[in-house]
Design goal:
elongated; 9 strands; seven-stranded antiparallel beta sheet; about 35% helix; two-stranded antiparallel sheet; about 180 residues; alpha+beta
Length: about 180
Amino acid sequence: MGGVAGMRGRQTVRGMFQSLGVIMVAAGVMYLFIPHDEDANPVQAKDYRVELLTAQRAAPYPVLAPEGLGKDWKATVVSYKREQHDAWQLGFLSPDTQYVAIHQSTEEPKEYVPDVTQQATDSGKTQTVAGQVWQRWEGPKYDALVRTENGATTVVTGTASFERLAEMAGALQSKKA
């Protein structure tokens, strides 16, 4: 007698899970097909001033951030990791929703640049932006503009075109006194 009740209990639990699975799939399908208002929940731009000030005080090189870019550039990622070769990262979504990031570090460029550009390599070409010469690196995912000075390597990289990367590179300023 007890064996039958036990079986029925297990079937009920299995049935519940199957029902739950069907509900989850239905909810997922409904979510996909219900139109979403893209403007209702735009990417929240990060206010990175505190992190920038912290990095500028802590880093042994002039930490860069863009000045004067339009409001349609949205900061999405910011970090400073002293223990990782004083690595500064500031990532943006460009007006055409491409990713553009500034990376700076005291790490050896041969190691650092391929790491932050997802395996880009030096194309041997250069690009002059606002009077400064940058190396052009090209990669399967990200292209990059790269400069090394003041003991640090600066990498402007992302999914954006070289024109957008140059726009960011040209806007970079240091507040280090």
